[in-house]
Amino acid sequence: MANTHPKRKRARKNRQEEIYMAYKNKYDKGGNCSVMGHRAEGTFSNLAEVRGFNIQEATRQENMHEHWDFALDRWGDKDDDLVYMLVDVKARKKTRRKDTKFNDEWVWLEFKNVQGHNGWLKGNATHIAFEREHDFVLAPRKNLWEWANKEIKRRNGVGSNATAANARDARYKYYTRWQRKDVLSQVHMQDMMEGVKDTKVWKKT
User: Fold this and answer.
1) How far is residue 41 from each of residues 48, 82, 195, measured CA to CA in Å?
2) pLDDT tens across 110-154, in order?
3) Phi-psi map region of 28: left, alpha, beta (phi>0 left; psi -120 to 50 alpha)
4) At 18, is the secondary structure helix, strand, or coil?
5) How many CA atoms within 13 Å lie on the side-chain side of 176?
6) d(CA 175, CA 186)
7) How high is the pLDDT of residue 17?
8) How many angstroms separate the Cα of 119 from the Cα of each of 46, 68, 193?
């Protein structure tokens, strides 16, 4: 287990606040998404530390443009086995903003962001860490990208059959929000865990 000096922990916490709390998406009314994301990142960072990883936090530019939050590394079971990951952490989500409860069964995926550029599924992260109530599900990003596109095509084909007009119908379909250029979809968590190769679960406790 990695030991971290209290001053280093405080410095890292201050660095996280500087990086993440300084940025709030203009569509994030009230800043709730920013707060939830910051908390999820803090929880994940603590878990990574307990698991013996060295942790490097992304800068704001790396977070926004390269789509990753933490660079993790540690030596594996063999002396020459270095484990290295770039992780993009995703806080628990609701299906719609007005919903009162989080939905851990269905996961939002981002193919393109609100500006129409590559979303986090096409970012530099090696893994996407999806927060649930009691754990994080770590999916290799490239495997997730390939599986999601194949699964949407398998279930709904291509063209208009594979597009949704609203969030309620975005399950295994491509969906673009009103007055935005993003492309999103929802997939079932259990399907993802079974279909995406090398997916792992990190328990919170």
Assistant:
1) 10, 23, 25
2) 999 999 999 999 999 999 999 999 999 999 999 999 999 999 999
3) beta
4) helix
5) 14
6) 9
7) 47
8) 26, 11, 21
Question: What Å distances lie between residue 36 and 21, 45, 198, CA to CA?
Answer: 11, 14, 27
Evaluate whether 170 touches 117 at the Cβ level (below 8 Å).
Answer: no
What the block records as the tokens of 30 is: 């009230």
Specify the length of the chain in residues.
205
For the packed helices 6-20 and 32-50, what is the interaxial angle rounded to 10 degrees? 150
**First-last CA distance in the chain:** 15
CA distance 171 to 157: 13
Cβ atoms within 10 A of the Cβ of 63, count?
19
- CA distances to 24, 53, 69 from 151, rounded to whole Å, are 32, 33, 27
Q: Return the H-helix or E-strand segment holding 160.
A: none
Residue with tokens 């979809």: 185
